[in-house]
C-alpha cells in the first residue's frame, strides 16, 4: 500500500489499468513509513532542562489597554457582592394579577382552531 496524492496522473493510470506502485518511489511506501517511525520518541525528563534557569523568573507579558469603550462595571472577586437588582412587579394584562405576564397566565382564554 502506498500513500499517493490523487493528482491528474492517478486517473490516467487507472484508465490504462497500470499499477500505481510502478511509478512511485519506495520512499512513499507504508513499509518505509513504519521503518522510519517504529522507534519510540521518549519525552524529555523534567530535571534540569537548562542549567541555571528557573520557572520562578518568568513574568507575564505587560498589560496593554484594550481598544474600544471600557466596561462599566469591573469583574468582581470571590465573595464580593454582586450588583443590586432592580425590583419591579409584573402585572398580567389578562387577569390583572401581579406575579406573571399574559403569556404565562393560567386563566388566559384558549384560542379556537380555525379550519381552512
From TrEMBL:
Domain of life per record: Eukaryota
Ranges where the record places region Disordered: 52-89
Regions of compositional bias (Basic and acidic residues) in chain numbering: 74-83
MF (Gene Ontology): nucleic acid binding; zinc ion binding
Name recorded for this polypeptide: CCHC-type domain-containing protein
